[in-house]
C-alpha cells in the first residue's frame, strides 16, 4: 500500500487490506474514506470487513462509493461535506487512488485554481490532465483526443490472449489495452488453493509482466462507451477513440446479492474460492475440520466456471476421507439449478463421487441470507407450482459462490442485451449492432460456459475477425462454443468435461488417452502440471496450442 499526501490533513491510496489497518492507526490516521464500491475486484475486501477492524483500532470509516470513471457533481459535494466534518488526518482510497484524487481536485479547483490542483496531483503521482476542461469549470470533450487502431477493454485472460494473438498475426498493429489493475490472477488455480494443492502466490503475476511489450497499457478504468462515435471515456472523463474495440472486462461478483454475506466473509466458517484472499481460508477450514456440517452453494447461472462450486465440495470431501473424518461430517450441496451438471454425459461419474462422499444434493435452492455468528443460512426454494418457500439450515463451514453479472459500466452501456450482457453473434463474437466491436470472455451473451478455456479458444477467433474487420473483409473465423471444466473429484483424479454449444462433446484428446467421462489421473496431471504453464507461457503469449480458430463453412449457393 502506497500512501500519498495530497493536501493538509488528506492522503490518498489504492485499495487497503485488513492487514493495513494496524499500520494506518500507528501512522495517526483518524478517518478512512472509502470511494470504492464493494465487488469491483476479485481480491477486494468488503467495506464491512475493513470497518470492523478500523473500529477496533479507533479509526472511523465512511463509505462514499463512486463508480469508476463517473465522478458526478453530487459525488464531489458529498466528498466536500464529509471531508469537512471528519477528524483529521484522513486517508481516502479507491482501487488506485484516482477517484479519491479526482474528488479532491474537483472540490478544490474553485479555491486553489487549476494549475495548483494539477501540480499537487502530479506531485502525488496522479495525472489529472484529462480533467483539465472540467477542473476549469467546463464540460466539453476536447477536440484532439487519443486514438489507437485497436482498443481492448480488460487485461484478464481474454484481453491479454487477444492482444497476443493479434500481434502474432500482425506485429505492426497499434493496440492499447485498458485495465487499472496492477495484478493479474490465474483464477482457475484458486480451486486448487482451496483444496490445499496450490500455494496462492503461484496464481499471481504483475500486470506489467504479462501485457505484451508492444501493447500500450492504459492504467485506467472505463467510464462509458460511445460506440456511435467510435469512442469511449476513461476515468476522469478522458476520451479515447479507436478503429476497432474489443470488450472483455470479465464478470462482477455480487457479494451484496446475499443478505449478511459481506458481514461474515473470511470468518465464522464462511469462505469462497472465488476470491484470491479467501481461497487459503477455505483450505484452513477444510484441513482443521474434524466433525460437523459443511454446506456448499451454487447461485443461478450464468456464473464463471460453473463446475467450481462442486469442485470445492469434492476436494474437501476427499481430504476428510483421507484424514479419516468423513464419517463425522455431513456434506450438503445447495444448487440453484435443477441438475448437478449441465452436460448429462458427465453426470454419472460425478454421481459416483456424490455417493462416495455421502453428499446430500438440494436442487432449486438459492442462497439468500447468511448469519455467520449464528452459523445459519437461508435458501429460497421455488416449488413445481411456482410457490416460494424458505429453507433454513445450520453449518460449521459454508462455501459460498455469489451471484454474478456483467460489470456495472457495461450493464449501463448501449452494448448489452436485455439481460445486461454484451450482445454478440455467438460464432464470430462480433457485436450484433456495431460492426467494429467485438467481445469475448465472461461478459458476452454467447451461450457457452464462462471458463478460461473458453477464452483461450475465443481469443484467436476474435483476433482473426478483428484483422478481417480492419481490412473490410468478411469474418474469417468461428467459435464453436468450446468450454472445458476439469472437475476435481478427488486429489489425483479429474473428470475432464469438454463441450461446446448445445452440450456437444468436444474432447481435445483421443478417448484411449483421456476419457473425459471417467475420472482420470492423466487429466489431473494436465490440470496440476500442464495447464498453468500453458496459461502463462502459451495462452497469454499468443501461442495457440490446440486453440486455432475454425473457418466458416462456405455455402455452394
UniProtKB/TrEMBL annotation:
The organism's place on the tree of life at top rank: Bacteria
Pfam families xref list: BLH_phosphatase (PF04273), Pyr_redox_2 (PF07992)
Domain Beta-lactamase hydrolase-like protein phosphatase-like residues, every copy? 6-109
Question: What are the GO MF terms of this UniProt record?
Answer: transferase activity
Keywords of this entry: Transferase
Query: Does the keyword Transferase feature in the UniProt annotation?
Result: yes
- Record-annotated FAD/NAD(P)-binding domain positions: 149-265
InterPro entries associated with the record: BLH_phosphatase-like (IPR005939), FAD/NAD-bd_sf (IPR036188), FAD/NAD-binding_dom (IPR023753), Prot-tyrosine_phosphatase-like (IPR029021), Sulphide_quinone_reductase (IPR015904)
This chain belongs to the protein called TIGR01244 family sulfur transferase
Amino acid at each position: 500500500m502506497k500512501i500519498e499526501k495530497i493536501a493538509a490533513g488528506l492522503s490518498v491510496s489504492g485499495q487497503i487490506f485488513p492487514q493495513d489497518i494496524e499500520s494506518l492507526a500507528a501512522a495517526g490516521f483518524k478517518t478512512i474514506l472509502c470511494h470504492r464500491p464493494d465487488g469491483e475486484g476479485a481480491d477486494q475486501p468488503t467495506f464491512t470487513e475493513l470497518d470492523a477492524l478500523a473500529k477496533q483500532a479507533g479509526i472511523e470509516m465512511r463509505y462514499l462509493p463512486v463508480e469508476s470513471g463517473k465522478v458526478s457533481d453530487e459525488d464531489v459535494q458529498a466528498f466536500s461535506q464529509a471531508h469537512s466534518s471528519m477528524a483529521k488526518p484522513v486517508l481516502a482510497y479507491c482501487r488506485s487512488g484516482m477517484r479519491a484524487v479526482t474528488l479532491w481536485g474537483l472540490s478544490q479547483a474553485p479555491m486553489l485554481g487549476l494549475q495548483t490542483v494539477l501540480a499537487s496531483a502530479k506531485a502525488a503521482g496522479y495525472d489529472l490532465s484529462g480533467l483539465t476542461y472540467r477542473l476549469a469549470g467546463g464540460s466539453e470533450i476536447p477536440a484532439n483526443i487519443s486514438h489507437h487502431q485497436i482498443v481492448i477493454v480488460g487485461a484478464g485472460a481474454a484481453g491479454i490472449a487477444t492482444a497476443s494473438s493479434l500481434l502474432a498475426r500482425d506485429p505492426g498493429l497499434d493496440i492499447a489495452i485498458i485495465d487499472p489493475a496492477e495484478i493479474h490472477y490465474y483464477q482457475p488455480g484458486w480451486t486448487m488453493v482451496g483444496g490445499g494443492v496450490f500455494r496462492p502466490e503461484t496464481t499471481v503475476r504483475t500486470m506489467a509482466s504479462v501485457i505484451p511489450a508492444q501493447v500500450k497499457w492504459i492504467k485506467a478504468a472505463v467510464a462509458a462507451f460511445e460506440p456511435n462515435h467510435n469512442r469511449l471515456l476513461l476515468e476522469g472523463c478522458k476520451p479515447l477513440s479507436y478503429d476497432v474495440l474489443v470488450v472483455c472486462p470479465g464478470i462482477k461478483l455480487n457479494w451484496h446479492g446475499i443478505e449478511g454475506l459481506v458481514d461474515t466473509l473470511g470468518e465464522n466458517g464462511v469462505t469462497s474460492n472465488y476470491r484470491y484472499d479467501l481461497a487459503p481460508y477455505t483450505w484452513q477450514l477444510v484441513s482443521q475440520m474434524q466433525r460437523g456440517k459443511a454446506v456448499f452453494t451454487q447461485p443461478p447461472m450464468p456464473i464463471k466456471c460453473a463446475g467450481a462450486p462442486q469442485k470445492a465440495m469434492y476436494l474437501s470431501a476427499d481430504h476428510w476421507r483421507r484424514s479419516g473424518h468423513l464419517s463425522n461430517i455431513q456434506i450438503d450441496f445447495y444448487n440453484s439449478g435443477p441438475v448437478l451438471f449441465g452436460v448429462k454425459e458427465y453426470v454419472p461419474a460425478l454421481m459416483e463421487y456424490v455417493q462416495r462422499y455421502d453428499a446430500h444434493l438440494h436442487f432449486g435452492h438459492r442462497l439468500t441470507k447468511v448469519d455467520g455468528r449464528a452459523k445459519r443460512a437461508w435458501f429460497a426454494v421455488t416449488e413445481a407450482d411456482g410457490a416460494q418457500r424458505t429453507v433454513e439450515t445450520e453449518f460449521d463451514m459454508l462455501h459460498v459462490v455469489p451471484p454474478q453479472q456483467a460489470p456495472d459500466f457495461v450493464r449501463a452501456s448501449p452494448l448489452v442485451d436485455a439481460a445486461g450482457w454484451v450482445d454478440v453473434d455467438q460464432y464470430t463474437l462480433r457485436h450484433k449492432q456495431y460492426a467494429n466491436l467485438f467481445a469475448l470472455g465472461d461478459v458476452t451473451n454467447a451461450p457457452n460456459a464462462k471458463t478460461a478455456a473458453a477464452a483461450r479458444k475465443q481469443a484467436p477467433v476474435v483476433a482473426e475477425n478483428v484483422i478481417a474487420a480492419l481490412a473490410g473483409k468478411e469474418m474469417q473465423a468461428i467459435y464453436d462454443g468450446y468450454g472445458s471444466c476439469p472437475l476435481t473429484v478427488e486429489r489425483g483424479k479429474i473428470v475432464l468435461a469438454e463441450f461446446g454449444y448445445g452440450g456437444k462433446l468436444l474432447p481435445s484428446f483421443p478417448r484411449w488417452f483421456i476419457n473425459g467421462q471417467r475420472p482420470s489421473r492423466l487429466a489431473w496431471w494436465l490440470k496440476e502440471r500442464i495447464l498453468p504453464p500453458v496459461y502463462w507461457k502459451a495462452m497469454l503469449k499468443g501461442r495457440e496450442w490446440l486453440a486455432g480458430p475454425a473457418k466458416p463453412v462456405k455455402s455452394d449457393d
